[in-house]
Design goal:
By secondary structure, this protein is mainly α. It folds into two domains: 32 residues, no CATH class; 114 residues, no CATH class. Helices cover 58% and strands 0% of the residues. The longest helix has 25 residues. The chain is globular. It starts with 12 loop residues before the first helix and ends in a 6-residue tail after the last helix.
Length: 165
């Protein structure tokens, strides 16, 4: 794939990155507020820290994703889910498939939403579906995801060391 040079006619890593992701829905080339997806995400009526979490989730930069990448690159990391201890933890497992979080979705009467979100193959596609939910349901899902992420981080500090010797 070729890319356009920056505004000064020079190559930069940023210009290559922008060219790579500009065509994606909600991609990096449109994340500066001119894309309806990002405007809607940043317009959610919640705390800024939750919006930042959602932005990081969409960009696959949550620690759970980074740990999986580091393991694929050869680091000896324990990537099992710290909430259930079973499968390798990735974003989809942690937020939608973990046996512990499934119970929360059921208790909130959101099992049908969870099953609908599981069908998507990327965090951005999941977020697009969340943004299409009725506002009250949307806020419940966003809050659940953020609270679950925070709970996971607390448990991870207690449950496992960062590296396996």
């Amino acid at each position: 794939m070729g890319w356009h040079y920056d505004s000064k006619g020079k190559f930069s890593v940023k210009s290559a990155y922008m060219a790579q992701f500009a065509s994606m829905p909600g991609g990096a080339g449109t994340s500066q507020g001119d894309d309806p997806f990002w405007r809607k995400l940043w317009g959610i009526q919640c705390q800024l820290k939750i919006k930042h979490f959602l932005w990081r989730m969409c960009h696959n930069t949550l620690a759970v994703t980074v740990r999986a990448i580091l393991k694929r690159r050869g680091m000896k990391l324990d990537t099992r889910c710290c909430m259930c201890g079973w499968l390798d933890e990735d974003g989809a497992h942690l937020m939608l498939r973990c046996k512990e979080v499934k119970e929360l979705w059921r208790e909130l009467n959101l099992e049908d939403v969870r099953l609908d979100l599981i069908e998507e193959c990327s965090p951005i596609q999941i977020m697009i579906k969340i943004l299409k939910l009725p506002e009250e349901q949307q806020m419940t899902v966003v809050t659940l995801l953020w609270l679950w992420w925070n709970e996971r981080n607390k448990w991870c500090m207690l449950w496992r060391p960062a590296l396996i010797a």
